[in-house]
Hints:
With about 190 residues, the chain is an all-alpha fold. Helices cover about 90% and strands about 0% of the residues.
Amino acid sequence: MQHRLPEIIEQCLTIAGAVVALYLFxxxxxxxxxxxxxxxxxxxxIYNKHVIRYQKELHDRFESLYDVFETKDxxxxxSYFQSTAKAHQKIANWGAxxxxxxxxxxxxxFLMVLHISIDLNEFTTGDIYxxxxxxxxxxxxxxxxxxxxxxxxxxxxxSMRMKMSDEEVQALVGMQxxxxxxxxxxxxxxxxx
Length: 193
């Protein structure tokens, strides 16, 4: 968390700085860049709705890790980590969808800005180079956002856990440990049969 939060702030400031610099060339360019906000918000909501569930599942599993090793059953431990890998895979799949959607939107923004810069204005070659440089900064920082959103989702889920009372946490851990162990014991028995 101590590394990711400053990165999130840094990327947001970089994006804002690039948009302001592009505004100084032409207000339509900055409007084109702000067009990314709507798709980003939609993708972020969909992403958070699905991924926070998988993040919670992972964090619940990590809380019962000691109980899993305590069983000393190799097959049980293997099945535990295989199902943990499935949760990681689901998060990675949503990350790929998020990144792909972001890439498509950024491509559209890039093309709109180039159209505005080349066809609608009579910028000099130096101006177009500066616009492309600022636009590249904007795109580079924006591409980093899906990875940061995954970290942000994890931070949100952990912070929700931190706000729970000690009794709620103990009840959750105890309930999760029992249900995880029962689930894994059932899977382990199926695998041995």
